[in-house]
Design brief:
Elements lengths: L7 H10 L2 H33 L7 E4 L4 H8 L10 E2 H9 L5 E11 L2 E6 L2 H4 L11 E4 L7 E4 L1 H7 L6 E2 L2 E2 L21 E7 L10 E4 H15 L17 E2 L1 E5 L12 H9 L5 E3 L1 H44 L1 H9 L4 H42 L9 H18 L1 H8 L3 H5 L4
Parallel strand pairs: 4-10, 6-9
Antiparallel strand pairs: 1-12, 1-13, 2-11, 3-4, 3-8, 3-12, 5-9, 6-10, 7-9
Helix pairs in contact: 1-11, 2-9, 2-11, 2-12, 9-11, 9-12, 9-13, 11-12, 11-13
Length: 432
């Protein structure tokens, strides 16, 4: 049986197989640069969409944080618990200053096993929409109806392992509770157990990480701590609360709008009116998210630029690997010339070899990008509750893959030129 003829493709593949270490390292560099660039491009657009979730149908956020951006990051994305409280009288004043569609008070500061607690009114779970047009939905149980009942966000329920009917003790601050075994935990409110009465469906926002209780429960917890510091001992009830105990950390406001519209003609007027009060900070969440991305855009561009440099570097590595291999393959090229291969055919085989490295690296880069995107998305969801779509943008993917293959083709031109001009007689001369 006659041997199969050596086609140009088989010659190129055998040439790559003859240098496995160099070939795989070069393919790996191309794959890494392609994967890195695709992940950065994909995360840039997906992260913006993720930050648009969470503020939901809120028009304004009132806080006592140092700046509007900090207020949004703390009050909506649970970056930190707001440090400065707002008196209940201030909330009542703001609520009565305009016929708001709703004005929802919130208080943060406690936690359970690192998951933040949001003390609020039932309106937070019935009127506020964590994602505009997508109201809260219960997966099981019901909403809290009385003090010391707790409703779990989807991520908090999954991460903590809590179930309906269980009792939990909240921790003052963001430290882990005693159940979590954290030696650095804050004070645990063991005097007042909370009963889990409901679990929410995932909303795809940072609120999924939170646990929701009513305001009176939170006020009682902190009134108990205050009385302990004052030397007064014993249980505290609603009747024992003073004005100093009735504190909140934020107010979510929505103005009346026309049916089918999210905008309000009174937005700017009310925004300006609230800003005149120097004791509070007023933020438009959508505006602050735009500001956040404007701040990080330069850093974002720097990372993408670095990824492009890595991609170019991988092309240079391909060129050097092929160029240096020409010295060792001079005799092989000369034999092909003697057997009838033209200079143009040799040139094409070397460029094809470079292209195959580019194709293989680009394909592996897509796989790395998908895996990296899924890992990054899972980390963001677990750490800060952001739901980032790990899918790759088709347009960006085509551009990056096309660029990687084109750079690989360009990288093969210099080695191909060297092979093209290789002296046949000198290459076939026996070694001394």
């Amino acid at each position: 049986m006659s041997a199969r003829p050596l086609t140009d493709t088989r010659i190129v593949l055998r040439s790559l197989q003859a240098r496995p270490l160099s070939t795989w390292i070069t393919i790996g560099m191309v794959a890494t640069s392609v994967g890195l660039l695709l992940v950065l491009l994909g995360m840039r657009s997906s992260a913006r969409d993720a930050f648009d979730r969470g503020s939901g149908n809120t028009h304004l956020l009132v806080s006592s944080d140092p700046s509007p951006l900090v207020a949004v990051l703390n009050g909506i994305f649970y970056a930190n618990a707001p440090a400065n409280p707002i008196p209940w009288a201030k909330y009542q004043q703001i609520r009565g200053s305009f016929p708001w569609l709703w004005a929802i008070p919130t208080q943060q500061g406690d936690s359970y096993r690192g998951y933040p607690t949001m003390a609020t009114s039932t309106e937070f779970l019935t009127k506020f929409e964590p994602v505009a047009g997508q109201p809260w939905k219960l997966r099981e149980g019901r909403l809290f109806e009385r003090p010391f009942e707790i409703v779990l966000g989807a991520a908090a329920a999954k991460g903590s392992g809590l179930r309906l009917g269980q009792e939990v003790f909240l921790t003052h601050g963001s430290g882990g509770s005693r159940e979590g075994g954290d030696d650095h935990a804050g004070h645990v409110h063991t005097e007042y157990p909370f009963k889990v009465v409901g679990v929410l469906e995932p909303s795809g926002s940072a609120h999924d990480r939170a646990l929701f209780i009513d305001l009176e429960s939170s006020w009682i917890l902190h009134a108990f701590d205050r009385r302990e510091r004052e030397g007064q001992h014993g249980k505290v009830g609603a009747a024992d609360l003073t004005d100093a105990d009735r504190l909140i950390t934020g107010i979510l406001l929505r103005l009346p709008t026309r049916p089918g519209s999210d905008a309000s003609a009174a937005m700017q007027q009310q925004f300006d009116a609230l800003r005149r009060d120097t004791s509070i900070v007023v933020a438009q969440p959508a505006q602050q998210i735009q500001r956040l991305f404007a701040i990080v855009s330069n850093v974002d561009g720097l990372f993408i630029g670095m990824a492009v440099v890595v991609l170019v570097s991988s092309a240079l590595s391909t060129m050097l690997a092929l160029y240096n291999s020409m010295a060792a393959r001079a005799r092989q090229v000369a034999v092909l010339r003697v057997l009838g291969a033209s200079q143009g055919r040799i040139f094409g085989m070397v460029v094809t070899e470079s292209l195959l490295i580019g194709f293989a690296g680009a394909a592996a880069g897509v796989v790395l990008a998908l895996v990296g995107g899924i890992a990054a998305s899972a980390w963001l969801r677990a750490s800060i509750g952001l739901v980032v779509d790990p899918a790759l943008d088709p347009r960006d993917t085509v551009i990056v893959l096309g660029g990687a293959v084109a750079l690989s083709a360009l990288a093969g031109l210099l080695p191909a030129w060297r092979a093209y001009h290789l002296p046949v007689a000198e290459s076939l001369r026996p070694a001394a």
